[in-house]
Predict the structure.
Amino acid sequence: MLSTDVVLVGAVALFGLAFLGVGLSIASIGAGRIRTARVLREAGPTALRDVPTASGLVEFEGTARTADEGTLEAPISGASCLAYTVRARSRVDGTGGGGTDSVGDPAAGTSANDGAADDEQWTVDGGAAASVPFAVEDGTDRVAVDPTNAVLSLDDWEASQQVWTDGADLERDELERLDAAGLPGVDGEADDDSSEFRHRQYRERRLDPGADVHVFGGSVVDSSRDERASGRPVTVAGDDWFEISAGGQQTVLSDNRRSGSMYLIFGGLIAVPGVGFTVAGIVGLVTTLVL
């Protein structure tokens, strides 16, 4: 009987330790994200001349310039750019778009043809983004940027790029570029559930050569002495924290800080019962062995 009791209370203690370990592990991930967000926020931008020798995640700003890879053709405007995003939204004509899946977009402003678009409800149903490697310079120094994994935060783009364009107003070459970018169809597409037609609009935002750009959360990937001696600019790339913005507002920073808080809370919730099971198991072991 004694051996059975020891096994049972020992299992309870081990179960508690497992819960405690998982909870602390999750909480440590959250604490790490919160700590990294605080360090990055307090550090501020690094001067371009200091980027090659910087360690860890860096933040810098300057003027975007074309690199060896050239430029992209933006889908709607056809302009040569370094990065773009395009969003598509739609509503079924005659319904007002008031379905439960429709969302308002108060930041969208008015469409090109309808000054009352703020009062309409639209469903954002597609989007595409693309970018090419580019350089950032400040008149003296130059840093190459590989935006492959970067989040393009375009909310700060200039006001002229905030306008929604009706699909019916687009030329054939513009429609072909949108199709090549993977955007959904244009006006005249029948709605799946009725004979009504879907009214669709698009909005394009770009990072143009010569525009001010803010690069956040990347790290230097080729800072070797040979690279610096050759006169080539070092390249900055990134992953989870990497963001390119035309304004300076870091959405990735706030998103990671928010997710870090969630990890911390969730880890704590798991760790609490782990502590309880562990203490109960240890007390049970001591009681069983001593008494």
